[in-house]
Each structure stands twice: as structure tokens, then as C-alpha cells.
Amino acid sequence: MPEPAHHASDTVEPTASSGLGALVARAARAGKGAAPVERWNPPFCGDLDMEIKADGTWFYLGTPIGRAALVQLFSSVLRKDEDGKIYLVTPVEKVGIRVEDAPFLAVEMSAEGESGDGALTFRTNVGDVVECGPEHPLRFAVEPNTGGLKPYLHVRGRLEALLARPVTYELMALGEEIEVEGRRMFAVRSRGAVFPVMPAAELARLSL
Amino acid sequence: MPEIQAAPFSAEDFRARAARETGPFATAYYGDHRFDADADSYVAPASLRDAAVLVPVVDRPDAATLLLTQRHSSLRSHSGQIAFPGGRIDASDASPEEAALREAYEEVGLEPGRVEVVGRLPDYLTGSGYRVAPVLGVVRPSFELTLNPHEVEAAFEVPLAFLMDPANHGRQSRMWQDRERFFYAMPWRERFIWGVTAGIIRTLYERLYA
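Predict the joint structure of the above. Result:
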């Protein structure tokens, strides 16, 4: 690996609570991965009264699931199928659940390296660590009512994480104007991939 | 979440932890496949057999224990292994709870009236094709056990504090049907607790004590 360029003037001493290592340390399930739900093909066994709210809170029978370990277990067996529905999948059954927005919430971001060849790494509310790049792209949706910008990060399968508000602000602060197919775009980059947010001309109207 | 005040690893503490369990129970998130590094090769059998076990916590005054059996070496499945009392859910059983209590009575002579059912764990899927409903119970001493000599070789108690200590949850593997299978193992004195029973004990730890 090449030595990273060193700029004494903007070197920031890493603290215990910042940086990629700290982000990974805060991720309960970092590196452990999810269950191999894509390879299981069980029959549909009905819907459960379970819902993931837009803020990442899980409900079962109308009551929030308070225990993080349980939420992590359920989140490790999520699958989104071609029908657009989200299921909990075990080797012998799949049951439908409701998801208000995205099944995961990205609650922390770490930006490492120079902007061109650097990497954006995200931590989700349930302990996944995802490095944004060609394998895990970002997409940007605009909320119809408010015009607010909602970035989504691919996590696995067809499952995405919605970026939490503060993380969205952090990400936008790293944005730059890049020519994409002959058009000036406001975009972010990670692992060599360019993710256009919107035409630069529209940036003025950006409502975060 | 309400705080639990009872003495650690007491039956009262177990009862309070079991009461917090909300389910869903009839979904097999847990099982041998979950503890195996190569779980994606798990193939569900054409038809799963429904079973229930009793997870009997004995309310000993000094420290609660878990009652386990050693299956008879002549049995067709899981012979000689350490097990919870339990077996197939019959058509005549109204519920997994009823099946677990019936089996416990048939195998070790534990009177159903001595057992207070305090909850459930989610179904546990075994590599041998069973879908096991673990029924949580508190057993009130004193009781005399009568072992069914065709099914059970021995019954014994292991301190709950020992089994709910993750330091005692060893991971082992062995070659079986051309691949390495991983499982939990919890040796206690001369007894070697492993496989499905160790998996259910591990699940009990993860759900109620972790």
C-alpha cells in the first residue's frame, strides 16, 4: 500500500472517540456478518406484527424491543425479496415484517484518506460496518413533501441504510463539484466511485 | 426494562428473566445452523419433526440448578447424549408446554404439578431435523425421580451459575458427513454436554442472561 501523503499542517491527532478504529470498536457485530439468508429458500409463513420505524426503532406487537441483542439478532436475518417486501428468514421459514423507511439507519461515518482515493465507512444502528464504494453504493432520494435530501447506503442483498440527519450533514460537507457525463454535479466519492447527489446548479436549492 | 432484583442465578431471578421474553417463539431463528461457521450449507429436511423440551430450573435454596438427563445408549437418535427431558409433540398434546411436561413425567417421573411453566425460548432447529420448542420451567423441591430405564440412563443437576457463565461455553468441531461441524460444548465433571443441548443452553444464556 502506498504511503499516504503527509501534510503536517492539517494532521489531526486521533482521539479515542474518533476515527475508523473507534467506529469499528463501537460496532457490536463488526466483521461477524449476517446469516446466509440469500441461500435459504424457505416457504412464506405469514406476516409478523413487527415494524422497523424510520428512526431505526424496532416494534413487536406494538411495543418497542428494548434489548439491543434481540434487535441485532432479528436484523441479522433480514432479507428484501424481488417483491419489495422485507422478511425475517430462517432455514425453514420466512415471515413478513413492516418497514417504515429503510431497515437500517447509518448512525456514524468515518472518512479516511484523501478525498480522491479515500473511503467512507459507515456504522449502522444494529452494528454493521459498511465501507462505501462500488460494492456498497450511495443513492440519494428527495423527499417529495419537504424537498429534503435522503441518502441511502447499500448494506447487503437489497437492504439499505438511511443516513441519519447528522451523518447526512457530515457527508454533504465532503461533497465536491465533479464533471459526470458532461454535467457539473455535486457528488461524493469513496473507494474510487463517484456518487452524484444532484446537479451543481440545483445545489442552491438544496434543503437538508 | 424493569430491573431484576432477585439474587443472581436464583430460581426467582430466572422467573423474572423468563417473563421478559416476548417472542416471537414459533420462529426458528436459533438452531445448530446459527452456531456453525458453515451454516449456509444447512439444508432443511423435507419435513421437520416438532418436539418440545423442558428446561427445568430446580429451585434449590443455595443456588438454582438445571436438571439434565443422559439418554439411554440404545436409543435411535442422540443416544448416550446429555439432554433435556422432552421429545416429539404428539397429536394429543395441546401445546409444546403440555408435550414437555408429559415427556418429563414419562422419562424421569417428574410430576407436572411440581413444575411451574415460566416461559418459552424461540424454537431451536436441530441439524437432525427437529424443530424444538424449549419450555422454561421452575421445579419445586423436594421430588423423587423415577427414571424410565428404556430412555434415560441418569438424571443429574448442574448449577445454573456454571451453565450461564460464557467462560464455560467452549466451541468445538468435528468432521461429520464430509465437513467440519461447529458446536458448543460444556464439560461438567464427568458429563460432556454438547450439541443440541449445549446449543439450547447457549440460547438460554443469549436470550436471558447476556
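The CA atoms of residues 49 and 61 of chain A lie 5 Å apart.
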